[in-house]
Design goal:
The complex is a heterodimer of chains A (530) and B (159). With 530 residues, chain A is of the alpha/beta class. Chain A contains 21 helices and 16 strands. Chain B has a five-stranded mixed beta sheet with strand order 2-3-1-4-5, with helices on one face. In chain B, β4 and β5 form a beta hairpin. Classes of the chains: A alpha/beta (530), B alpha+beta (159).
Chain lengths: 530, 159
């Protein structure tokens, strides 16, 4: 039988040359006349090992990595197709401690299957959740999701089951399921990995959401920065349609559900659900005041389930294995697993899916191995550009929604960006305001104007102009934005700013740079918009 | 990128026609036009407005809202450089400054010879491979000034 060799097609693997490696392996297979084929899988999420090549042997899949194109010939010389010894050999993939010490529920198949093979998906327990859902009354499906304790993984942590119940109980001639795949937070890539590595799980989750709430049409809104995810999702949707898993009669159930995949256009604000809906309708991505909730008046004014990729991709396992199975993971009000994404200045960056309860320190040191630069860690930003900067002394905070909320921080989408001691927190605070100014939709004044004033005030503080008074102005401004903004962009931008001032005050009291000279990286960039 | 065609109202009209019936058709149409021509020509605005039965102001307002849509053709190669937090933590500003100096332009500009456009971007989802860039739609991770040099030079040689 033909030996299968796996080379990831995940964008992060491509970014370090996976395509070149795959071609080199194919060339060697051809010139050596071997009975082997290259399969392009998703990533296992151990990015320091990419490109991670796996050979399928009778003992299981044996991993080699990171494989440079130049190393390919020596891998064949070492008979790696049979798991031969080589300096890049990592042993059985599933025994690699980073992976072994995880609880992969949502990511159970990611990196294992060929993302575009629906047969692979079905062979690995795919579509069992939908099968069960199709035999249940809609209200029971909703209750199953509610009982699992699943909360929105996009950032806000709102209970998914309650959202679905509202849509189910709102009568309408048309309802929608919208998947928010506008994963704009720096430090996050879990949505991208699922869409590139296991797209059918997302399609299945959306289909279950449709069956449960009476929605017959679904949209996946993917940010344009993810062209690979967009292409994979489009092809997977076509395959699901061809095989009767989408369309007017889902698997002979008499129930209709179809999906269209749409592309965003580089606006961070479109990750906010009401902006996203406006954008899907073909308008400027300006936010809508709530109420009405999208569950009652959403896309084109119809009741709409808006869920994040990871929330929807987790639904199939809940329906397959039952609410209790999922709820048994986690602690307190944070049930199930969190997909932690280690990013930035971290030695072993990657995806860690683990039951809620891990502390920041465990994530960063036990998995991440500390900083990539080897310098001391100074700050950590969790939850994207709107998340607080935490100092080393707060690393024992458990990664759950309530513990972070207590510290004016966010778990958000689970991204952790690590900074070493070269970071300047005044600069990071300025960037938070600058980013808000660039990405503000302009609907409300605190966000639109406040962010620009924020940049100016921080510049004055750094330049030591009336520093004490300007710090008071900044504090006032942050309070105004927190309380007065319409959505999370303006409303949470103060988190990184205030936490930077609170935990790293020394960065705001340095001597001013000499006149006419700015510190490196300080020159204003906000005018230079794309 | 280098394959983008010159503005052609007939081609534009057929791309618009193919998509105009979609619910929420405006973004798909704008993406299709930009894919075809590399930018959205002003002449497309009344055509889209008519096809979708919306005002020209609505079309213009939507185009100008989104960072992606261009008002003029980009260079033959488009380099998008991430400057979000994860890439900052790995020194993206240094790489950006290096590229700006090398090409003699700043972020958001196109070189005088029309070979390169360099844009800022906020997150490519390659945050464990920082600093990250995308050149003509292809992702690159762990980009140092030297890697950026070789990316740019190899495109120049090809051109």
């Amino acid at each position: 039988m033909s030996v299968r060799v796996f080379v990831p097609c995940d964008a992060a693997a491509l970014a370090v040359g996976a395509d070149v490696v795959a071609r080199a392996i194919e060339t060697q297979i051809a010139s050596r006349r071997l009975d082997a084929q290259v399969i392009r899988n998703g990533s296992r999420g151990m990015f320091w090992l990419e490109p991670l090549v796996e050979a399928e042997t009778p003992e299981g899949r044996i991993a080699y990595g990171p494989v440079a194109p130049e190393a390919v010939e020596s891998l064949f010389a070492a008979d790696f197709l049979k798991g031969g010894a080589h300096r890049l050999r990592l042993g059985r993939t599933e025994e690699i401690p980073y992976l072994k010490n995880q609880e992969r529920l949502t990511f159970a198949r990611c990196g294992i299957v060929d993302p575009l093979s629906i047969d692979d998906y079905i062979a690995q327990d795919g579509y069992r959740g939908l099968e069960r859902a199709l035999a249940m009354p809609p209200a029971d499906i909703v209750e199953e999701v509610a009982k699992s304790g699943l909360r929105g993984r996009g950032g806000a942590g709102f209970p998914t089951g309650i959202k679905w119940r509202t849509v189910l109980n709102t009568a309408a001639d048309q309802k929608y399921v919208v998947c928010n795949a506008d994963e704009g937070d720096s430090g996050t890539y879990a949505d991208r990995m699922i869409m590139e590595g296991d797209p059918f799980v997302l399609i299945e989750g959306m289909t279950i959401a449709g069956i449960a709430t009476g929605a017959t049409m679904g949209y996946v809104y993917i940010r344009s920065e993810y062209p690979h995810a967009f292409r994979t999702m489009r092809r997977a949707v076509e395959t699901a349609r061809e095989r009767g898993y989408l369309g007017p009669d889902v698997k002979g159930s008499g129930r209709a559900f179809d999906v269209d995949v749409r592309l965003g256009a580089g606006a961070y604000i479109c990750g906010e659900e009401t902006s996203l809906l406006e954008s899907l309708e073909g308008k400027r991505g300006q936010i809508r005041p709530k109420p009405p909730l999208p569950a009652i008046e959403g896309l084109f004014g119809k009741p709409t389930v808006v869920n994040n990729v990871i929330s929807l991709a987790t639904v199939p396992v809940i329906l397959d294995k039952g609410a209790q199975f999922y709820a048994d993971f986690g602690l307190g009000k944070s049930r199930g697993t969190l997909t932690i994404q280690l990013a930035g200045n971290v030695k072993y960056g990657g995806l860690v899916e683990k039951a809620f309860g891990l502390t920041l320190r465990q994530a960063i040191y036990d998995y991440g191995g500390g900083t990539a630069s080897g310098r001391p860690l100074r700050a950590v930003q969790v939850g994207g550009p709107l998340g607080a900067y935490f100092p080393e002394s707060l690393l024992d905070t458990p990664l759950d929604y309530e513990a972070f909320a207590k510290l004016q921080g966010l778990v958000g989408h689970g991204g952790i960006v690590v900074f070493d001691d070269t970071v300047d927190l005044a600069k990071q605070a300025r960037f938070a305001m600058e980013f808000c100014a660039i990405e503000s939709c302009g609907k409300c004044t605190p966000c639109r104007i406040g962010s620009t004033r924020g940049v100016e005030v921080i510049d004055r503080i750094v330049a030591n102009q009336d520093r004490k008074r300007n710090l008071e102005v900044l504090d006032d401004l942050c309070e105004l934005m927190l309380e007065g903004s319409l959505c999370a962009l303006g409303g949470l931008t103060p988190y990184p700013v205030l936490s930077a001032i609170k935990y790293f005050p020394e960065d705001f009291s340095k001597p001013a740079p000499p006149p006419g000279q700015t510190a490196p990286g300080w020159e204003a960039r906000q005018e230079r918009r794309a | 990128m280098s394959s983008a065609a010159v503005w052609d109202p007939e081609k534009a009209s057929s791309r618009i026609k193919a998509l105009e019936k979609l619910p929420g058709a405006l973004l798909p149409i704008l993406h299709a036009l930009q894919e075809e021509f590399g930018y959205i020509d002003k002449a497309a605005i009344p055509m889209i407005a008519k096809a979708l039965n919306i005002s020209q102001a609505d079309v213009h307002g939507t185009i100008s809202f989104y960072h992606d849509f261009r008002h003029e053709p980009p260079g033959r190669h488009v380099l998008k450089m991430c400057r979000a937090e994860a890439c900052q933590s790995m020194g993206c500003e240094k790489v950006i400054q290096h590229v700006e100096q090398k090409l003699g332009i700043r972020l958001g500009q196109t070189t005088a010879d029309g070979s390169f456009t360099v844009d800022q971007i906020f997150c490519l989802g390659l945050c464990a491979m920082s600093p990250a860039v995308m050149l003509d739609g292809k992702p690159y991770g762990r980009v140092t000034p030297e890697v950026a040099d070789s990316l740019i030079d190899s495109q120049r040689r090809r051109a």
